[in-house]
User: Fold these one by one.
Assistant:
Number 1:
Amino acid sequence: MQYRSGLLNICKPIILSLMLIFTSLGREDQPTLKAAFEGKYYIGVAVNGYQILGNDSKSMEIIKTQFNSLTPENFTKWERIHPEPDKYNFAVVDSFVKFGEQQNMFMVGHCLVWQFQTPSWVFKNDSKNLSDRDVLLAVLKDHIFTVVGRYKGKIGGWDVVNEAFSDDGKLKKTRWLGIIGEDYIEKAFVWAHEADPGAELYYNDYNMYVPEKRDAVVKFVRELQSKGVPIHGIGMQGHWGLNYPSLEDLEAAIVAYGELGLSVHITELDINVLPDPFENQGADITFRFKRRKAMNPYPDALPDSMQMVQSERYAEIFKVFNKHSDIVERVTLWGVHDGLSWRNYWPIRGRTAYPLLFDRNYQPKPAFYAVIKTVKEE
Ligand code: GLA
């Protein structure tokens, strides 16, 4: 007995060091997104308050090892950070900033002006009547100075205005436009710059590859630039699918925004593999039932064949980003893993979606390796 435990004691440190060597070997072999794209662009991820407050350590491990930029998924939106006229919620944002600083990550604030997730008090003079231009401008200025000012020098970039244009290139008829007029956009940029002259300021929107919308945004940015309004980058949201955008449209948009002297940020990337509910509407009576099943084709797991299709799609898109890495400054995935994606509940609730690079078990998917391979193949 004594002999055996003596032997164990001698062997223990050897076994432990061997284990350590094997574990670190394993780690070195495991590629990371941020290392793969080092020198090209930031690889970012959207985080939620649950993660930041320490309730999802597995996600946090992925965030720390894989990404070098962070965007709050919701907690810097107006309804969360400034829900009532005299109430600001800074606690989660402060923790987010502390975490980002400790990890040396580039942090983005999202978003200062948007028609959604903005409380209705913002647009009201009193409980009933719509506000007027001067009052709403004062509310906006105060919000921007308070929020951007608090994180001056810490949050490196802000989505200043989100989703102001329709796909046909017209300004959306939001309450911002209705009450203030077109210059709500330039005011927001000017004030954000005054609040933190060092922060990069972005215009962020979806379908930014659609030629009509792209041309309208380019024209609008040129006007802003001719007036000396500070704008530094374009955020292309990137909620894309297997068939859209075309690589030609994507590339043409990146180049067009680059020609303005702006950086391009792919701000909310996820590539949906589920069918589009707005297509294939039929008159069959069993249609609704059949449709429900057809709309959620992979309730248990994504088949290998689809993993491959998604990997190829991710790879071809990243090849466009790599080709224009002089313009593309950041690519941010909209969530850590498939289980956390908004695609599970939009545009249909309760589907099992697979749009991201990590699966529900926190494991890298084939698409993850395909994305990294795009750099190795250059
Ligand atoms: C838009 C917004 C994001 C988010 C997504 C859906 O793209 O910019 O903040 O709300 O919709 O998750």
Number 2:
Amino acid sequence: MFAKDKALVLFSGGQDSTTCLAWALDRFAAVETVGFTYGQRHGAEMAARPRLRAALRDMKPGWATRLADDHVLDLDVLKAIGGSALTDAVKIEMGDNGLPTTFVPGRNLMFLTAAAALGYRRGIRHIVGGMCETDYSGYPDCREETIRALEHAISLGMDRHVAIHTPLMKLDKAQTWSLAEQLGGAALTKLIVEETVTCYEGDRAHRHEWGYGCGHCPACELRAKGWARYRATVS
Ligand code: ZN
């Protein structure tokens, strides 16, 4: 339905953004990707991005011609501000504010604003992100209301309509696996298992049926539970 338009996907190299990239490749005439460095404690996700892009290109007819340029932007200001378990040596746990210590305040707001600014220069009005308000994390910058408000602010501030698409917003992790299967069949779920990185520790040493990870951080636990529910529904 957006066939003539271009899209820019926030592509981190994780399960959610890889599913979003496949979703966009099924819908838009051309799809660019953007990743962000912000002083992450590990580089496993960023290292997975080129492998994932190369595999997606060959996965389905049309995807090779639609998958366009990749960009990496530096948002090290988030590291300078610090204080998160994703950027500093902080234990991953629930904080006093009721949010996990993995919360990076302003991160998704900056990601989407930077992506929209890049899109402005590239002639792209459709931004696609993997924000999701279901399941564990409860990050306030992943809520539908936050995204819609930001979409409005960006559209006003850039004086053009910018659409932020969040295809995973209402899905739980089992449904995200199902969406990947619908989009790219077993080849895509296998790619996500083998190559995407969700683990907060960036662990690529321990292989589980749902993929690589430490197996005990909240991101691994969420991914493992989602995979188990997905497998229970398909078998
Ligand atoms: Zn982990």
